Amino acid sequence: MMPPAAPRAIWLLVRLRLLRLLNLGGSVYGRKPEAGKSRAATGGKRRGRWILPVVMALLTTVAFINMSRSILLNLHCELAPVTACADQVKSFDAQAVAATELAGAHFSAELMRGLTLHVTLLWLVSLLVPLGSRELAHTDWDLEWLVTLPLPRTTLLWARVLERTVTNATGMLMLWPACLVIAWYAGLRWWAVPAATLAALALLAPSAMARTLVDTGLRLSMPPSQLRNLQAAISVAAMPLIYLTISLSLPGRGIALGWAAAFPAWTLWTPPGLVVQWLDGTPWSAALLAAEVLALLVAGIALLGRQLGQGVVASSTREAGRRQTAAAPPRVLPGTPLQRRELRLLARDRNFLVQSLLIPIIVIGSQLFFTGGLRDMAQLGSEPKLLASIAFGLGSYVLVLSAFQTINTEGQALWMLYTFPHTLERMLREKATLWAVLALAYPVAVYVAGIATGARVDGHLLLTMAQVALGIPIFALIAVALGVWACDPLAQEVHTRVRPTYIYLYMMLASLYGYGLYTDAWPHRLAVVVLLAALALALWQKARDELPFLLDPTAAPPRQVAAADGMMAAVAFFAVQAIAFFALHDGAGPPALSDMTMAFAIAGAITYALARLVYWRAGTAGVPRLSQGGTLPALGWGIACALPAIAAGLAWMQGLRQAGVAVPVIADGHIGWLIALASIAAPLFEEFIFRGLIFNGLRRSLRLLPALAASAAVFAVIHPPLAMLPVMVLGLCTGLAFERGKGLLAPIVTHALYNGAMLAVQL
Questions:
Q1: How far is CA 330 from the centre of its chain?
Q2: What is the pLDDT of residues 568-606, one digit of tens each?
Q3: d(CA 466, CA 456)
Q4: How much is the pTM?
């Protein structure tokens, strides 16, 4: 049989690569194939894992499009020789003026040079990020087996460059939104979509060629040990470029805008500059761009041929033997044996050391330097909020690059953890503790620098320090828990060992905690800490259930009620309540109590029905029932637990009156609706969520007192600030009623009696 022709061979190799990536994506996000029959006690792993990646991909694309739009409009305002942007006070108004001025007009020469800098920076990122991936330091080189195919070497090289062009997801994410925005404001409108796609591919082709030339030359001339060090350096170099690009979207003559203004005109003849000219409508630029790209590719293939003239195997690509020396006495390291093992592995793996401990400093430093967030060190001491955000940002970023990889760092030796004389949960907890301690060193250093530069040590500073110190162990727990689902150390492809959507989820949660550091309202600060701490416990519980099944691709843990179910049910309850109230309220005047009551009842009923339906279809164990130990004992426990809650509520209201705080008085016309809301709807639906799901779920993992405290704290922070303390007591009492009454009836009675007593004293 004759070998296929060159075009068909290239197409088959590219198609093979695309199918492999598609299959890997299916194995990561889709349903795992069943190998025979699943165990009776553990059903197959069926999850809609594709939903979160699709949503996160759409959100990320929208974010990059919005950033590219801001960059283009800001470059016009800052660089255009004639513009009315300076007459506007707000940046939003200035961008609106810029959009109007760009409509129906060609870009100015200054703007085109600035956009060329923008596209050039993105092109460098599209080159460095894939080049700095772990694939460079991987001992296996796929080109060594590709050359064994019965095809000419030139055909193989063209196929390799083409598949790297179309599979560069990072490059497409960077370049396509920028080209889309440029084409849109150049007047192409909906034709901007295909034009941006062609422009991005035209830029990704030279990027793929440059990447192939560099990694081929490096593999032929460097041993793997040096490649690992170089890979770490390349991954570090890509980070400042990203933040330099982001800084172009900020108004004012910053560093990047100064470079954009001084960017030389000859760069318009490079591929990035020709892309900008082509999208702006210059007629001859498309032909010149195609000619340049083709010439670069042909020259690159010729250079690759010379690189591989002596074959693809070189002596320098193998690990060199090390001279045997006398063993030095081992250093005594702090911590448990497992933590000492982690520290030794960290010291040996320079790539992981740089990634986890150095890159966070470069990322945060680049962001502050290029975006102008930190003008000088004196500003660090004068702004406690900035100090707190930098401290927590560094610590949380260390965790996402280290604790998040706890499962992944074990690699193919993950099975060995199951042979240790400790539970896997305990070992992961020890690792989380170690990374929390290491991550805390960064906030400590930031606060030391802030105090040294003039930060005043007062109550507010101490409060933010405590909040940051609490946040680091919380997010260490979250990172390790999410890493159980996000990481697949058994995956053959290096880039598929981490599911990036979980990293985005972690960063979103860290942003929420950052909001808690910036807000001045102490109830919001408290709510953020409590809710994320409870979420950390809930995620840890779900991760603990998964641990015995990490090495089994066809089995999942038995389905049980978990605290995470309660957290999701609470979010759904408040979301549906807001939608129902919006539908019921006519928008005129203050909200009516009847509308609030109806929205509450509708949201509670829908949440309850959906939860029970999901549990029924999944065959979940531990679903809360109304009563399991008899009606009379449940009523007795409900009444008994209501008494201390009522006493605490009455004492609190009396204390408020003594302090001069006005306690609301209930109007006569509102009594009926308030009774329906406070004594019927609230006890029914809130007890199902907070005691039946959250407390019941936490009880599987925690002792009674910690589970009571955690569920009561979550219950308290969703109430108004003045009511948090008595509601906390109510949460403790209803949790105890659920525990002793063996069902939901007892806490419903406790809740209803408490709310009825509070209403009675306000009449």
A1: 39
A2: 888 888 888 888 888 887 665 566 778 888 888 999 999
A3: 15
A4: 0.69
pLDDT tens column, 662-703: 776 666 666 788 888 888 889 999 999 999 999 999 998 889
Q: In angstroms, what is the C-alpha Rg of the chain?
A: 30
DSSP conformation letters of 320-340? PPPPP-PPPPPP--SS-HHHH
Q: pLDDT band at residue 261, thresholds of 50, 70 and 90?
A: confident
Q: Are 698 and 711 in contact (CB under 8 A)?
A: yes
Could you give the CA distance from residue 707 to residue 625 in angstroms, rounded to a whole number?
19
Give me 604's structure tokens. 């509670």
In single-letter form, the type of residue at position 688 comes to F
List the one residue out of 446, 304, 303 whose CA is nearest residue 384. Answer: 446
pLDDT at residue 58, rounded to an integer:
81
* Cα–Cα distance for residue pair 271/275, rounded to 1 Å: 6
Rounded Cα distance, 78 and 253, in Å: 8
64 Cα distance to chain centroid: 15
Per-residue 3-state assignment (H helix, E strand, C coil) for 73-140: HHHHHHHCCCCCHHHCCCHHHHHHHHHHHHCCCCCCHHHHHHHHHHHHHHHHHHHHHHHCCCCCCCCC
Task: Give rounded-to-5 percent helix, strand, coil for the chain.
Answer: 75, 0, 25
Residues near 162 by beta carbon (within 8 Å), at least 6 away in sequence:
10, 14, 205, 208
Written as one letter, the residue type at 403 is A
